[in-house]
Amino acid sequence: MANVLSDIAKLLDDAGVATPAVDLFAGIRPGAAPNDCLVIFEYQGPAAEETFGAGDSPSVARPNIQVAGRGKTYVAARDLTWAAYEALRVVVNAEVNGTMYQRIAPTSQPFGIGQDAKNLYLVVCNFAVWKDDE
Asked: How many domains would you assign to the chain?
């Protein structure tokens, strides 16, 4: 099974938001990344939820993700991040790369966090994820 970052990248690619390894990256923004790009980061979520008793049935994993848009202008970064927000917030009971996603729920709307070392604008949004545990 694929990991959550690969799955989110597939969802964003399928929605036409960005293209993996071109303007969409998972876990790290390469030094050669284009000015206008998206990066998906995974961070701590709650412990997995057991369903119908511990150990004998599937549990629900609860990772959190952040989508970070970067652009030459604030508007470019904001628009890219909003496109990702709109594509992910509607994911309910969807299978991606063989993993069932019960929900991808925004925990924030996109918001600016300043500029990076190259003076490019950064806009991020955060999501809670409910998916079958692997």
From this structure: 1
What spatial distance separates the first Cα and last Cα of the chain, rounded to whole Å?
7
Contacts for 95 with CB less than 8 Å, ≥ 6 apart: 101
Predicted TM-score of the model (pTM): 0.91
Contact by Cβ (8 Å): 88, 94: no
pLDDT in tens, the chain (134 residues): 469 999 999 999 999 999 999 999 999 999 899 999 999 999 988 777 666 655 555 688 899 999 999 999 999 999 999 999 999 999 999 999 999 999 999 999 999 999 999 999 999 999 999 998 86
In 3D, which of 32, 119, 20 has the Cα closest to residue 8?
20
Q: For the domain that residue 44 is a member of, what is the CATH number?
A: 3.30.2000.10
* Residue with the two structure tokens 């490019």: 120
33 is in which domain, residue-wise? Answer: 4-132
Rounded Cα–Cα distance for residues 116 and 56 (Å): 47
Nearest CA among 30, 34, 17 for reference residue 90: 17
